[in-house]
Records
---
Amino acid sequence: MQLDPLLIARWQFGITTVYHFWMVPLTIGLGPVVAGMQMRWHRTGDVRWYRMVKFWGKLYLINVIVAIATGLVQEFQFGMAWSEYAKFVGDVFGAPLALESLLAFFIESTFLGLWIFGWNKLPKAIHLACLWIAVAGSIVSAYFIIVANSWMQHPVGVVLVKGHPVMNDVWAVLTNNTAVTAFTHTMFGSFGVGGAFILGISWYQLWQRRRDGIDTVDATGRVVPGVAPGIPGRDGSDHSIWITSLRIGAVVAIVAFAGVAISGDAQGKLMFQQQPLKMAAAEAACHTGTSFSVLSIGALGSTTCSDVVPVIEIPGVLSFLAKGNFTTPVEGVDQLLPQYEAKYGTNLPDNPIYGSRAGEKIDYLPMMEVTYWGFRMMIGFGGIAAFAAAVALWLTRKGTVPRSKGIMLLAVGGILAPFAANSAGWIFTEMGRQPFVVAPNPTGVDGLYMFTAAAVSPGVSAGEMLFSVIALTLVYAVLMVFEIRLLVRYVRGGIASAVPELAEPDQPADDDHPKSDVLAFAY
Amino acid sequence: MEFLPTVWFVVIAVLWTGYLFLEGFDLGVGMHLLFSARTEEQRRVMLNAIGPVWDGNEVWLITAVGAMFAAFPFWYASLFSALYLPMLFVLFGLIFRAVGIEFRGKGKSARWIRGWDVAIGLGSLVAAFGVGAALALTTTGLPLDANGDRVGGAFAWFDGYAVIGGLAAVGFSLVHAASFLALKTDGDTRHFGSTFARRAAPIALVPFLVWIVALQVEKGTALTWLIGVVALIAAIAAMLANARHREGWAFIGFGALLVAGMGSIFMASYPVVLPSTINHAFDLTVANASSSPYTLGVMSIVACFGIPLVLAYQAWTYWVFRKRVSGDLIPAAHPVEPAVRQQAVQPALRQQ
């Protein structure tokens, strides 16, 4: 079998990016919550907030480091595996990446270091500010990365010079409407991840307290919190820490999913204009019409669309998603394909840049089973998580969780739902852009687009790529094992795992006496 | 002379030099942690000496690479695709190093700790070697065709300069880190730092000097030769200062060696950013590898504010953590136990 460097490079980009985007939304989602908790502690002096900061902050850091480490791969691989892409778009695509590191990532990394080591060393207000600055850095950083990605989805702010895009309006690139909606959508998606994470773990802790007989319920079902002096951390403030965390997590998740839905709707309407074929593929909408497919079966992967059978359809809904009314017909795949072929050609040009693919027929239809199911998984998992968060609030209205182990496992397992929704969304939007790596902008510069087939590094062999994709996947799998092991260990340890003074009563409790002469030993 | 591309060549040279200066001691400390430290206390002192700053230092690399992508896409694309496997190993090195630093102290078994020591040490070694090799090769050349693509297979980049550059970065990092430890720690580790720097510097710095001289012989001008000589003088001065236990001066001296050395190397290379060893007509230069004046102009404005700001808050970080790290005050590592009702705690509960 002849190895195909393009296919391997795409798998590599997919694997590394989806993986990276498990750690990133958790970082972005947890950061503001931890900072908010520290702000509460700073304002109230209540030790419970301090302990929440310590505990959630610990999990935050375990995750942040993997996000940082895997982010490096992203920056390197545009040059390593996609050198033609890097050369084609460098003038406009490189700038947001450079700005990201200079204006955002430097801030995030430096101030995170100050936060980790600054306990008891920096004045409390400045220590708190360091975390807020680091969190802001991570959000600004995400904005620049989304700007770069959105330019591939919807190139703006450039002119073509000798066939290459050359930036002529950086403001247009930075305020690309695709970027603004995608950023909003991604931020809310990330907060959903953070909320569900806090909710699931808090639920587990409350369940453990009930299982161990520390918390009981009275006749009306209201909680009677107890203490277990033999277990470090399970003192008078422990119950309140977890129920507060749980409610914060649930509210964050619900608000986030409301935001996701609103921003997603705006983004969808934009995509129907900017990449109509992607959205038609997401709907398996073969023919022009107004109906939204609830379920379609058949050969979704086929390129002709002739074998797709809509089983359940709701009239009007597709038009609503795309245009905001129930009657305007939305163009289907069968109508769009000829338009694309007329505009961008039926075959790849006979240019050496396409390697053995030169002259090949172009398939403009993204893999429909991926776009169709990706789109539905994104919405489905997001909806499940939002619903579950609302149910969780109701079930815990009397101050604790049911004793049921099954519900606890559901709450913990529910942490995965928003992760799955995020991954599905990205896979949908990136696969839906194919066969383009830079999708044409229907209202932008004519002739500005790039086929993915032309983007890969010509000088890199398939063998090198195969080695790297296998090695990266193995390394990432090992990292995943260690990250989850550590997270589980600290979660099971509860508050005392992050506040060691509680396990060693000789030491002064908590954080009342800053000792500026003692150096921080965080490692 | 192309003004803006030249400015960005200088900016990128500064970013790489800043990276080698700052991560030089981080990576060197990582290697010392594995290869030189004798006790667990010493390892923790070393790790905490770089603890607050290593992550911020690593961003110099990310910014250098990002700036190359934005300002010289053709340089970035050709260098990184030609050095596909070495760059992959740099990534692995940096990944394991970073995760190791964060995870090491969060487990209690000897195997866990030892395993991450190996990850930190080897990760630092591989990353330093790979970055050094890549920077040497971008000054001495790669077998590139007219399109800037590597010719000759996955290892066609390998030559003597790759080895010299790799050893230069590793050797410099070891010495620079020893000097850093002498300056930033107390007790055993401080003593180790100055002793190591004294004994190792005359050998470990040789590859770096070879790289400097080789570049000057090939492309140097009177000015770059002069800066190269400054680098040599800085190295000698640093060694003398170290021998007299003037730790601050020694650290500044080794830093000056790096700055002058990289300065002479980048200046001698200018205006070529990546030569082709096949045909000099294929050389990438500041003129033919750069982005448009508009892009460079926009980034110049941002960099004018951004870089001084970064320097300011990173300098503040070093000020905040200016005290020496010593083992006397090190808190005991604390085990993480599940917060559940166990046999051992039952009596206490019953009493209640």
---
Amino acid sequence: MATHRFTPGSLERERRKQKLLRFSMYVFLILASLPIVVGYLWLFVGAFTGNLVYGFVPQELTVANWSFLWESPSPAWPNIWRTFANTFFLAAGVTVIMVVVSTSAAYVVSRMYFPGRSMILASTLILHAFPAITLLIALYYILRTLGLLDSLWGVILVRAGLMVPFGIWVMKGFFDDIPWDIEMSALIDGATRFQTFWKVMLPLVKPGIAAIAVFAFMAGWAEYIFLVTFVRDPNSWTLSSYINAIIGNYRFTNYGLLAAVSLFYMFPVLLFFLLTQKLLMKVTVGGIKGGR
Amino acid sequence: MASIRLERLTKKFGKVVAVNNLNLEVRDGEFIALLGPSGCGKTTTLLMIAGIYRPTEGNIYFDDVLVNDVAPKDRYVGLVFQSYALYPHMRVYDNIAFPLKLAKVPRKEIDRKVHEVAKLTKIEELLDRMPGQLSGGQQQRVALCRALVKEPEILLLDEPLSNLDARLRIETRAEIKRLQRELGITSILVTHDQVEALTMSERVAVMHQGVLQQYGPPDELYDRPRNLFVASFIGDPPMNLIPVEFKKTDGKPALVTDSFVLPLAEAWGEVLGQMDQGEFTLGIRPEDVRLSTEKEGNALLGEVFLTEPLGGGTLVHFRFGEISFRVLAPREIKVDVGDKLWIIPDQEKLHLFTKDGLSVREVGRQDAH
Amino acid sequence: MSSGDPKRTGRAKGYLQAFLFLLPGLILILLFFLAPVIITAVMGFTNMDYRFQWNFIGLGNFFRMADDFLIPKILINTLVYTFGTLAIFNVTFGLILALLTTSISERVGLFFRALWLLPRFTPPVVYAAIWLWILSPTRNGLLNGLRVAMGLRPIAWISQFPWGVIIITNGIIGASMGMLIFTSAIKAIPRDYLWAARVDGASWFQEVRHIVLPLIRWPLMFITAYQTLSLLTSYEYILLITQGGPFHASEVWSLYAYNKAFSAYAGTYEFGYAAALATVLVLIGTVASIAYWKIFRFREMMAQPRIEVS
């Protein structure tokens, strides 16, 4: 065996190889992400400039694209603020219903014994195999029968209902993590089962509630397909319907307006996303693992 | 094989200093142990030697070649993990062959070497199994095979025995030592178990909070601990450590506490008299004490508080006020709770430590410099 | 003691309480999940239209499907779209993103993962708007602007490359799911394995090939199966960006069903036929799931972790 196998000559080569590998990783990631970056950048640039030369070179700064805030671009369209309020109402409605319903159901599923418990768990799993979107036709029929067509309430109920199994699975995970001892000692200390739920368990699953609330709000805020299918009345439009109309009317022309309204719509999403992206990643993974 | 030299080695994780200014030399073919409680920096040191961690400061030399920037694969080290880290999706054979495959060794050669090393560790009949089907001891041997198959210059063992049951641990201890001798490979064992360290290695480095406390042969650590930490860490049952005051009563040197007075030999009196302090910590190993029903020489009287039969002997507990004192009595001596006995420490084997925790012997040696 | 067995009344009270907690959830799930499944299945055997009458016509809709001259085209579109997007983006690209973002510095990796997750949480209309600008056939779009700047003529991207457009636009959203799942799987690999491999002499590529990929086999298969079903039934972005056009060139099965039911250009609302189409799609999905179950031997994979624990 050679006396000096540890020739330091290998180190320079090894280092250079490592550096090159790192470097090419960054290059690949940047190139691959370019369409996303450019796309979102356009929302900002396009919203505040006049016509872009060659589609991407900004000319002068202007707020003309934002005139939709005080003056409707089309007489057939509703006031933007009303639309904004509708969007918020929809998102908030989905959030409240989905959080309340799935939290209470998850508590039962996680902590109480009752006949049919495992059946309910299994059926929420199986239902996930039926993609909501293929049920659209039947949902239309049901809403029509219930007289909820053309109403935001219909969309809220449908969206919340479709998210409930997901919410139950996520919240069940959070409830499962609470030691039984805590709940038992609350019962021994004289609390009823409901008081235990309300005063002891709920505060402990706050992070889970926050997680599904963010999820539900984002989903409600972004809702598109149920809205354009179930709601025609302009008085019940949300920002999705509004942009859908811009795309329909001015397809391939008024990009300034499109970018401005899109940015207006995106603003809360971006804010939420920047604040909660780590949480969103965790719940996306957790929801999948929970059987979504 | 290779010698190893660590020079002012320091590793920081953020603000936490895991290893602090470590100097250590390992001779070619030597077997040493890094011993210390968990979190003392021993595994971090090992991973720096393997090239997984980069030192924050300081240098690592193999055979006097600086290897700080050499990739793990070019360091010719074999590493056995505490978890064994056997790749769960590969057969035992493929696990062992993996380093050779990566080194693009010809297939026939791989086959020969795998069988050779499998024979060495007596696992030939396991080659076709999956790691999940093996017992802990078998997995351990496979991990050793994988480390040895590439004929490394240095073998690094990270708590290799801690996942084995007590009996198997003793067998494996001997097995690893046999292999190391046969191959003459420079080896570093990381362990928190002093028995492992003292029985297996030629020299032991005791670490605490990232700092090297003492480095020497097992006997030296046992007989002449440099400081309080080493004294308290090495030895089972542990050394009795008692805060005492050095005084001369009637011209005779003695160690005094609130509860007892222990007369000292003259030689000790001279050493302690030269020091500019009166407070010390007295260390007496339970086995360096004799019990007697009659007063002999420098002794103190105690009442037996509790006895623990250990099989080979009896651990006798005395209590002096707040201070408890353990003595390892040979089997032949019959002791009962409540007996009053004379405790006679072997004056030659007393340990005394200054307020800074340094051994008085050590202070003397430093003065001599 | 006369008021009956106290133990039993106590238990019944417990059940009642559980039931009350569950009730809102049960109603929502029954009304908007279970009922639609049944109604869709039954509706497929009627010729229901905008008058909403239950006229049962037996297998009529299914015979019609067999004769529908568009069906072969739509079937091919569906297969190309589903497996193209799956193979290029949802699995491969998701995997590459996960591997790269876990190999570079943690903060930069997190940034790229967040960037790729953003489209998933963007309102579909906004996401579509962005692509409609990029792909605009006029010189006001990004790609054609670039062409004009280089002295070339604009191209009608969507009409020219309908398959490419729907695969890329859906793929960029689809990749993020795999990315997240694979990332968490990679992070769950004990670092001892990776360190052992590094000491054994593995380069980054060898580490990925010999250690990481085999150890994340199960999430890889899971995402493949799961995303097949997602893609089979997703048409929101296609509806917004290409509307299935030009001339059904990018119309997939689920979008066809949607168009049959709700599209204004068909004039009539063919709910019965659309429901039959949806039923067939669910059947296709079920068959695909069973096939994946068999091919990937999921049962075996699920048992494996027990052996892995040592």
